[in-house]
User: Which sequence fits this backbone?
């Protein structure tokens, strides 16, 4: 019986911790981001046959340098380190989101230009669908899109979404 009660108490504690982690009123902040898994799509138009692929990354830690970071593979279209930082929004920027994820993908496609960067507004949660919109037009994943050129001509398109994340204690 005693062990049953301990188990029940532990389960309640766990449930409580989950609610703290995911509750609406939680104070999400940049310092608490432990890792993020990204969903990355590359549409590589440099390849004469075209190449488009979407992958989910492993859990990536924030604040890594490109040379401390493992390469991600985007199918056969692209590869390279994906690095990011998270900052808290200040002032009027807080109206659009609590935090911003700034990422840089050292894309193997881009040789003679700055690597693609992207800026994701994020409240620390998934995005609720807007009422009356087709669900296919409303991604629940916070994300951003950018493009970059090779030899000033061939545009490659990049999409980045926050698929999953963990909070540091
Ligand atoms: C949430 O964060 C704000 C500002 O960072 C702080 O003033 C407030 O006390 C925090 N609330 C809780 C419940 O931690
Ligand atoms: C990928 O890029 C090509 C060339 O610009 C374009 O025709 C195609 O529609 C793009 N595909 C997607 C899914 O964006
Ligand atoms: C990564 O690059 C920085 C400078 O850009 C250098 O100081 C550091 O030693 C490098 N780290 C590794 C593991 O190569
Ligand atoms: C963050 O929350 C605010 C207030 O609810 C909302 O207006 C904004 O659209 C949200 N932003 C994101 C990126 O989810």
Assistant:
């Amino acid at each position: 019986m005693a062990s049953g009660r301990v188990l029940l108490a532990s389960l309640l504690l766990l449930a409580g911790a989950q609610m703290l982690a995911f509750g609406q009123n939680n104070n999400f902040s940049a310092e608490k981001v432990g890792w993020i898994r990204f969903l990355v799509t590359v549409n590589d138009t440099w390849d004469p046959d075209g190449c488009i692929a979407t992958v989910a990354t492993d859990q990536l830690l924030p604040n890594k340098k490109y040379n401390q970071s493992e390469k991600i593979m985007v199918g056969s279209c692209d590869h390279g380190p994906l690095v990011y930082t998270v900052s808290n929004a200040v002032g009027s920027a807080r109206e659009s989101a609590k935090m911003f994820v700034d990422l840089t993908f050292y894309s193997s496609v881009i040789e003679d230009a700055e690597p693609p960067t992207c800026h994701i507004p994020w409240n620390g949660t998934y995005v609720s669908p807007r009422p009356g919109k087709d669900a296919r037009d409303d991604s629940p994943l916070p994300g951003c899109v950018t493009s970059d050129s090779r030899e000033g001509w061939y545009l490659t398109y990049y999409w980045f979404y926050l698929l999953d994340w963990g909070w540091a204690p």
About this structure: The chain has one domain: 28-167. Residues 2-22 form the longest helix (21 residues).
